[in-house]
Structures are given as structure tokens and as C-alpha cells.
Amino acid sequence: MRQGSKKQRKPTVAQTAGEMQWRAELGLRESLDEVDVNILRILQQDGRTTNADLARMVGLSAPSVLQRVRKMEELGIIRGYTCLLNAERLGYGFTIYVQISLSLHQEQPVERFLKAIRSIPQILECYHVGGEYDFLLKIVAEDMPTYQQLVMDKLSQIKGIGKIQSCFVMGTEKSSTRLPI
Residue 72's CB: how many other CB atoms inside 10 A? Predict the structure, then answer.
């Protein structure tokens, strides 16, 4: 060994996981090393990848990979696993983005609105946004009459809504659930 050079020890999984937790608590995307990022990319591609296959793909032992995955789950980096369904094949061929303005911006009307929309299963997503509107909803429906009925029977019945504006999706050119990591 040359003088002045020290053989660096490879960090243990515990050290790596501890460091990952420290950095994740700071909210740093850089807290993930190359192996973690590869694990996340593989799981985003196929959430059903077995731990053994995942270990083989990233070049680590299965227990090491499992520990990394569990740590990323604990830290909330991995929020869960799901199955993506084809809405059209299940009869939901109509997607609508709906902009909502509330007439009052006090805590009680906002909470009443949020409680009401959480109870409507056709509303897949709700974003609190800035600008001319207060909320952006993603809604699926079987067809236009079904959507119209939803607006009349449910959305327009929510107290505190000042304005509803609908934007109908004519085609989907890109749809992804993968983050660009």
C-alpha cells in the first residue's frame, strides 16, 4: 500500500441507512445513493419485482436490498404499492379536469368542501392551487350524461362553491406515475 493512501472501508448497510435517514430528514433528494435510485427506478417500473430479483439487478444481497427498501418505506420515500387500472376498459372513458372556486376562503367552508369531495369516488385527485381557482379536480365518468349528473347531484350541492369550470380530456398523449429520478 502506498504511503498516505488508506484503504477505504465500504460502509455497512446500517451506516448507509443511517446516513440516508439523516439526509432524508433534511429533505434532500441527494440522500439517495446510486443503488437506492436504481431500486426506486426498478420498483417504479414494476412494483411486483421480487426482493431476490431486485437484489440481483442492483448487485447486492437480498437482505441488504430488503433493508434499504424498508428504510425508504419508513422514511416515506416509498409511499406504497398499487395496481394501475385501465379506466376505459372498466367503463370510465371520460376524464374531466374541474376547476373550483370557493365563495369563502375560511377554514370551515374549505374543510366542508374537502370532506365532501373525499366522499365522491369519481374524484381521483384534488389539488389546492393558486391563481384564479382554488382547487383542481381530476374526475372520471362513464360518459357526458353521467358527468352532468355528478355535477348536478353532488358537486353543485356542496355549500361554498362559487364557480365550477370543466375541461374535458379529448386524448391522453402522456400519462406516467414515474418520478424522474
Answer: 22
